[in-house]
Design a protein that fits this description.
elongated; single chain; 2 domains; alpha+beta; 129 residues
Length: 129
């Protein structure tokens, strides 16, 4: 049924699993409740399908970390990544910043769609890893 497997996802306070086969992927939260009934211990597992919520939250996180116009990571993503790096990782880190001069005036005058066509917004050759 689920030939491709089950993977536990790194969540801080919940047990969330990705379950997939060749046609569909589900995200489920499993809550283990220990029970004691008449001196006998047991476990009750509550399984909740959180697929739509999980995908929506991931989409919001992605949108909040990437500039829509340039498709590059934004300030929030850089701060997040730097805060999770150790001192060793930071020794070999290079940061490049690009300031698009006068783009605000183009957006204010002609609109954001036109600003996206401005030559200074065409960024190529930049990679984020």
């Amino acid at each position: 049924m689920f030939s491709q497997g089950i993977d536990r996802l790194p969540m801080e306070d919940k047990d969330v699993y990705k379950i997939e086969n060749d046609r569909v992927t589900y995200y489920v939260e499993i809550d283990n409740k220990p029970l004691l009934y008449k001196g006998t211990s047991a476990h009750m597992y509550l399984i909740k399908n959180i697929t739509s919520t999980y995908l929506q939250v991931n989409d919001y996180q992605r949108i909040s970390m990437i500039d829509e116009l340039s498709t590059l990571v934004n300030r929030r993503a850089l701060i997040h990544d730097f805060s999770s790096m150790g001192q060793q990782d930071l020794k070999h880190t290079v940061v490049g910043l690009i300031d698009l001069d006068n783009l605000k005036s183009v957006n204010d005058t002609y609109g954001h769609d036109r600003g996206g066509q401005h030559p200074t917004t065409k960024v190529t050759g930049l990679y984020y890893d």
